[in-house]
Amino acid sequence: MIVAANDLKKKGVKLIDELIKKNNEIIISVRGKQKYVIVDVERYEKLKNSEIELAYLETMKDFKEKRYHTDIEVHIKNIS
After folding, report:
1. Exposed/middle/buried for 26, CB within 10 Å: 0-12, 13-18, 19+?
2. pLDDT tens string for the chain (80 positions)?
3. What is the pLDDT of residues 5-15, one digit of tens each?
């Protein structure tokens, strides 16, 4: 569901409440371009937890494959 920013400005949270009941997400368009996404808190938390879990799995893979530094100066050179 895509909503123009002007509609949101006019109708506010009431519009969001109506739309979120029918849609998993609401995309806000500004001047015809999709710019923001609104999701309910439950879905947002699931997305954040998935992001954290993926970061953890990638970290553990790097650790297992010994792709890490114990020397801070080497690390800083690699990220600079």
Report:
1. buried
2. 888 999 989 999 999 999 999 999 999 999 999 999 999 999 999 999 999 999 999 999 999 999 887 888 988 888 88
3. 999 899 999 99
This model's pTM is above 0.70: no
Domain boundaries, the chain: 1-39, 41-80
CA distance 53 to 47: 10
Count other C-beta atoms under 10 Å from residue 8's C-beta: 19
Torsion of CA 48, 9, 25, 32, to 10 degrees: -110
Nearest to 35 by CA among 70, 6, 65, 56: 6
